Amino acid sequence: MKLMFVGPPGAGKGTQAAVVSEKHGIPHISTGDMLREEIKNGTQLGTKAKSYIDAGDLVPDDVIIGMVQQRISRPDAQKGFILDGFPRTVVQAEALEGIVKLDKVFNIDADDEALVRRICGRRICKDCGAIFQAAQLDSSQSCLKCGGQMRIREDDNEETVRQRLKVYKQKTKPLIDFYDERGLLYNVVSESIEDTTKEIMDVLSKME
Q1: pTM, whole model, 2 decimals?
Q2: 152 has which bridge partners?
Q3: For the domain that residue 35 is a member of, what is the CATH number?
Q4: Which active-site residues does the annotation give?
């Protein structure tokens, strides 16, 4: 089962991909996580990518495509995978078609203002990587999963978020038409996490 999740920043792609990954035993491949790991390790790729990410722009195609191709060739991805954050442009989608055929693309969408509030309120655990909204945490602002210290991503500020949404609309939304024309697209309106998960799981159950 080769899947892809597309949608604006903060729509819940990563959350839903993680649920499906655990349920179906296929890897959740997040290009954002892969890039942040490179940045954390101070690699040449990470240094190059950081300047684009900090500005709210997309990392160049050649860097992302090569990284994804290498990842999906690993043994754990041979039975399927979930792409989260790639492709983001039609050019990337066309390149992906030359590498692998997808079975379904889920477009998870939400209102812009809701996305800004959601992203700016996002907190991430430094220890286990769990993500919560600031309003969910108690006064200690500790992780509800492991008790670790929560942090705010550098790019989770309103100015950068609005720029990311602008870039998404200009460069990424054409993907919706691209995959719709190929009969692979399924649209989901992101409201509650539970309702979104149920809708996605219902679609996948019909594919098995």
Answers
A1: 0.77
A2: none
A3: 3.40.50.300
A4: 13, 88, 122, 153, 164
